[in-house]
Design goal:
six-stranded mixed β-sheet; elongated; 16 helices; alpha+beta
């Protein structure tokens, strides 16, 4: 019944298998990809006719993870997979970017690539297998997919590169790099790095490109055996149309590109476009799309030739020149941190907000649930490019740009144990003419430092471009939108002065050598350092946390005390939060994080927690309250909710005939803990005055009768143990930065 075909290779110690002919046989191309116990189904289907009036290639890529792949049932009310998660959107983009440039430029049939994870094995990442399967499904489908692409992931552990690492290995890695490429060229790079050098990044790309070669060969072998007949595709327009348009408007296009202001330049180009469309569609010899496509080719030729020959760009800049930069902070008084980063005609208004552990985002995926304490949202409104458009949910582009900036900034954040805030960065692009994602990186770094986040180093980013004709090429720093659209490469690099934290590269043509990539990386570092210099004029490494932000302190308590702090049904901890306006989070290990707006509320909440967590010591003196009087003595509430008994003989040095003659319920008295009897605390009033160390009922110090310079007693926590210690330190303003 089935004519199943399989191909297998040993790929870095694991068996990679591609099979077709058994499942989804009505798709133009369908491939099952298996490595370990991870199985991904990839299908490709194209409409049989070109889409009417299409002015771009209508390709849709969807990657989806089924929770049953990991033996889970979806959360939520509906108990079924819903809209794509952030990871699914990002993986869809990861697949789309390297395969889109490989289609014939005259192919405008609607095409859908669908990749579904049916089985998940933590040792083998499904996103890499999905990209491989998508390429294989297209290769055997017969559609005009002109080359074969494959991909791999590269990690770096103990200065060694590891191909196809497991999830466990990735937790120890200083690099997360995905490389996609053909047998001869790198097509796409996506990475997050821990301040690696440019040479280390380049070496990792080389390792990844070499490692994917056996996969390309396997897909080629599968295509030879199972491939369908190739579809016929014609060029978009005849060459004579381009020649005629070039002769008519070449000089005008040169003049238009010489206009430095984006809107004025676009207006001049639009005028030329409207004239050519009117002239060449008048007799219905050509369609509007054919005319615009031919004119686009003329614009590309003019721009590229001028840049290659004159080494001068559209807006008059030198090849390695960065646009004028303006940096500002503290724009929004009630935001915890804010910045405005302007580079030429690209501008980002960025804010940062500090929250508590309760603000962390819960990520539900087939890898398992986890919490994320660093959030970054990139917003691209239509007004930023002078256009009108509907307000919709974040597009794939917005999600992708935000994730790139997130990767770039995350490695520079302080360790969670040192800075326990949840951080949210929001970047609103208020103007755009190239590389708004890198403007988000720069603005995000400044906004967080303005909020008092003790970053390891400021981070900046820059977008690089390329124009290549034959063996001649030029690398462009800080590209604008036209250079991105008409050039051959979009290469974004972010990092500090010492190393790279994120790198993203998309190649539009074959033949990009590693020498070109090295030049781009080196030139990008020069631009990155220049931008950091401009940023340093507006940011301060000593910024204090905003008064609007919560103050957070963490300390350890014995695990045995956790239940007491929480109380039955959460009664105790809820009461503390309600009376102090604080938030309290306790981990299973006994780490307590207390947050509140204002130092007074924070100290009150911490004191109440420590009343429960810290047992009183014999010899300590407290200010307590008489709660019950008996003939034999009185009960005194002396340390939070703790009660102790004062025998009648311990009330005063002289003889007391009746307790009620000296004490009354509700009276505040100083008591000293003198011991325990059958677990009950024994207190004394008559000898309490002899101690030089007194505390009130909450364990707080009391002022002496005479104001003298003294040291404040502070409860310290040894971060390496669960023991709470008492230490003496001079009263001073609390420091938030190490």
């Amino acid at each position: 019944m089935f004519n199943e075909m399989k191909k297998q290779i040993d790929w870095n110690g694991s068996v990679l298998e591609l099979s077709t002919g058994k499942i989804a046989r009505q798709a133009d191309g369908a491939v099952m990809v298996k490595m370990g116990d991870t199985i991904v189904q990839c299908t490709a289907v194209s409409a049989k006719k070109a889409k009417a009036d299409a002015d771009f290639f209508p390709l849709t890529v969807n990657y989806q993870e089924k929770t049953y792949a990991a033996g889970k049932i979806p959360g939520g009310f509906f108990k079924r997979e819903g809209r794509g998660s952030e990871k699914e959107v990002l993986t869809s983009r990861l697949i789309d970017r390297p395969i889109r440039p490989l289609f014939h430029n005259g192919f405008f049939n609607e095409t859908q690539v669908l990749c579904t994870v049916h089985s998940f094995d933590p040792n083998h990442s499904p996103d890499i297998l999905a990209l491989i399967g998508a390429s294989a499904a297209l290769a055997i489908s017969g559609v005009p997919y002109l080359d074969i692409v494959a991909a791999t992931r590269v990690a770096r552990i103990d200065n060694q590169f590891i191909v196809n690492p497991t999830l466990e290995q990735m937790e120890q890695s200083s690099l997360d790099l995905v490389v996609a490429g053909t047998s001869s060229s790198v097509m796409m790079v996506e990475s997050e790095a821990d301040f690696l050098t440019e040479q280390q990044m380049l070496d990792a790309v080389k390792v990844g490109h070499e490692a994917l070669q056996p996969v390309v060969e396997m897909i080629e072998a599968l295509k030879l055996e199972a491939g369908k007949p190739a579809w016929e595709v014609s060029d978009i327009y005849p060459q004579e149309l381009e020649s005629e348009i070039k002769e008519l408007v070449k000089d005008r296009v040169v003049q238009a590109f010489a206009i430095k202001t984006k809107q004025d330049r676009y207006a001049a180009i639009t005028e030329i476009t409207d004239e050519m469309v009117a002239q060449f569609t008048e007799n219905e010899q050509y369609t509007e799309f054919q005319v615009k496509s031919a004119l686009s080719s003329v614009k590309s030729e003019v721009l590229r030739a001028d840049t290659l020959s004159k080494k001068i760009r559209i807006d008059g800049r030198q090849l390695d020149e960065v646009r004028q930069i303006m940096c500002e902070t503290e724009l929004l008084p009630n935001a915890h941190g804010s910045s405005l980063f302007t580079r030429g005609e690209t501008q980002a208004l960025v804010t940062s907000t500090l929250g508590t552990a309760s603000d962390e985002q819960i990520i539900d995926s087939i890898e398992g649930d986890r919490k994320e304490s660093f959030l970054l949202n990139y917003i691209f409104p239509q007004y930023s490019v002078g256009e009108v458009g509907p307000m919709r949910a974040p597009s794939r582009r917005e999600v992708g740009h935000g994730k790139l900036a997130w990767r770039a900034l995350r490695k520079a954040l302080p360790e969670k144990n040192d800075f326990s805030y949840t951080i949210r960065v929001v970047s609103e692009i208020t103007e755009s003419n190239g590389s708004s994602s890198m403007a988000t990186v720069c603005g995000g770094s400044m906004a967080m430092m303005d909020a008092g986040v003790p970053m390891k180093a400021p981070i900046s980013g820059i977008a690089m471009g390329l124009i290549k004709e034959g063996d001649e090429f030029v690398v462009l720093s800080d590209i604008i939108a036209d250079e991105d659209h008409l050039g051959d490469m979009d290469f974004k690099v972010a990092g500090s002065e010492s190393g790279v934290t994120a790198l993203q590269m998309d190649i539009k043509v074959a033949g990009i050598t590693f020498d070109i990539m090295k030049k781009a990386l080196d030139q990008a570092k020069q631009g990155r350092v220049h931008i950091l210099g401009k940023m340093s004029e507006a940011i301060s490494t000593n910024a204090q946390i905003s008064g609007n932000a919560p103050i957070i302190e963490s300390f350890m308590v014995p695990k045995s005390k956790i239940r007491e702090i929480i109380g039955a049904g959460g009664k105790v901890i809820r009461e503390i939060c309600e009376t102090t306006d604080a938030k309290i989070d306790i981990s299973d290990e006994g780490q307590v994080s207390v947050s509140a707006i204002g130092r007074e509320n924070l100290d009150a909440a911490i004191a109440k927690v420590k009343e429960i967590a810290v047992d009183p010591q014999v010899g300590e003196v407290f200010t307590g309250k008489v709660v019950k009087i008996l003939d034999a003595g009185a009960f005194v509430n002396y340390h939070g909710s703790r009660d102790g008994f004062v025998h009648i003989s311990e009330i005063a040095h002289e003889r007391v005939s009746a307790v009620s003659d000296v004490l009354s319920e509700g009276q505040q008295v100083k008591v000293k803990l003198i011991g325990f009897e059958r677990g009950k605390a024994k207190l004394t009033i008559k000898n309490a005055e002899k101690s030089n160390d007194s505390k009130d009922s909450n364990g707080k110090e009391q002022e002496k009768d005479k104001p003298v310079a003294k040291k404040k007693k502070v409860m310290r926590v040894d971060s390496t143990s669960s023991e709470i210690k008492s230490d003496d330190s001079e009263t001073s303003e609390r420091k938030y930065f190490k």
